[in-house]
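for the recovery benchmark. tokens below, seq after
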């Protein structure tokens, strides 16, 4: 009986050690993935945030494919490229610029805490659907982002708030109003506020130039 109890105790101790070791390995893996996102973006999720790991890994894989090219040529200016893409697809440049500023800070090498990539913050699956092979390359990424935003503007009959909501949460989540999901209801007014600021700055530049 004593021998049986001792064996049971040793088994419980061994299982506890294995569980602790497995937890430690998982924590290290999570920290490495989140740390890599921080390294690429200069900001990122909490180091032990276990959410969206698959999306982050896909984004890091896309960045690994993109990065070698940076040693050969430099990325074009994000803002100028965003304006060109907006005009090409019939968007007001200030509107698309505002989206890019809120999405990525107008930075080409940016990965979000959910795994969105590049200056237009395209999810790898969305980038693939748009034919964007490299979501970190500003010309292709911003062209895809502008096309996607334009499609949402058409889908929601020119309503900027709903088009932005669809860009952020996906068109399937928008049913005549901005979804209240803890993110999109804050995202939409942020983009619209930046849009209004950019319009005011443009009016001021025109006024000053006309003096």
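predicted aa per position
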């Amino acid at each position: 009986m004593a021998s049986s109890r001792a064996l049971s105790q040793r088994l419980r101790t061994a299982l506890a050690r294995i569980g602790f070791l497995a937890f430690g390995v998982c924590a290290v893996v999570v920290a490495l993935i989140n740390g890599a996102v921080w390294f690429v973006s200069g900001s990122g999720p909490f180091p032990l945030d276990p959410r969206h790991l698959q999306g982050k890994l896909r984004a890091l894989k896309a960045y690994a494919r993109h990065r070698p090219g940076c040693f050969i040529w430099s990325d074009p200016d994000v803002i100028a490229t965003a304006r060109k893409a907006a005009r090409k697809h019939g968007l007001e440049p200030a509107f698309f610029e505002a989206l890019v500023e809120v999405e990525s800070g107008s930075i080409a090498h940016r990965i979000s805490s959910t795994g969105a990539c590049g200056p237009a913050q395209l999810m790898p699956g969305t980038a693939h659907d748009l034919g964007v092979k490299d979501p970190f390359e500003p010309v292709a990424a911003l062209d895809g982002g502008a096309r996607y935003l334009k499609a949402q503007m058409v889908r929601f009959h020119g309503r900027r708030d709903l088009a932005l909501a669809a860009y952020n949460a996906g068109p399937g989540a928008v049913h005549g109003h901005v979804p209240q999901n803890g993110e999109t209801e804050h995202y939409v007014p942020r983009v619209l506020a930046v849009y209004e600021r950019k319009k005011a700055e443009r009016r001021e530049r025109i006024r000053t130039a006309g003096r």
